[in-house]
Design a protein that fits this description.
- This protein is α+β, with helices and mostly antiparallel strands.
- The protein has one domain: Alpha-Beta Plaits (2-Layer Sandwich).
- It is built from three helices and four strands.
- Strands 2-3-1-4 form a four-stranded antiparallel β-sheet.
- α1 runs antiparallel to α3.
Length: 105
C-alpha cells in the first residue's frame, strides 16, 4: 500500500532562499537514489511566503523508511532546524485517485 504524507514547514524570516537551496540539494539525492519515492514536491503558500508544504508519496512504508536513512535526507533533517520555526507532519491513507507522470524543476 502506498504511503503519503504532507509536511508543513514554517520558515524563520530571511531563511527562504537558504531553506529552498537545502531542499534542491535534497531533491538531487532523492532523484538519484530513491526509486521508491514516487512524489516529493515542495510547494509555497501564496498567502504565506514563509510556509513550505511538502507532498510526499512512497511505494510503501519500507520505501519511506529507506528514504529516512539516506545521507541526503539525514543532512536535510540535521540542517533544517536552523531555517524553520516549526514543522508539522500528517500521514495520509490513500483511498482512490489517479496521476499522470510529471517532473517539476
Amino acid at each position: 500500500m502506498p504511503l503519503a504524507l504532507v509536511v508543513t514547514h514554517v520558515l524563520k524570516p530571511g531563511h527562504e532562499e537558504a531553506f529552498d537551496a537545502l531542499v534542491r540539494r535534497t531533491l538531487e539525492g532523492i532523484r538519484a537514489h530513491e526509486p521508491g519515492t514516487l512524489v516529493y514536491v515542495s510547494h509555497t503558500d501564496e498567502a504565506d511566503p514563509l510556509r513550505r508544504i511538502f507532498y510526499e508519496l512512497y511505494t510503501d512504508r519500507a520505501a519511506f523508511e529507506a528514504h529516512e536513512r539516506h545521507d541526503h535526507v539525514r543532512t536535510f533533517l540535521d540542517e533544517r532546524p536552523q531555517h524553520i520555526e516549526s514543522a508539522d507532519v500528517i500521514f495520509l491513507e490513500g483511498l482512490m485517485g489517479t496521476a499522470a507522470p510529471v517532473t517539476l524543476p
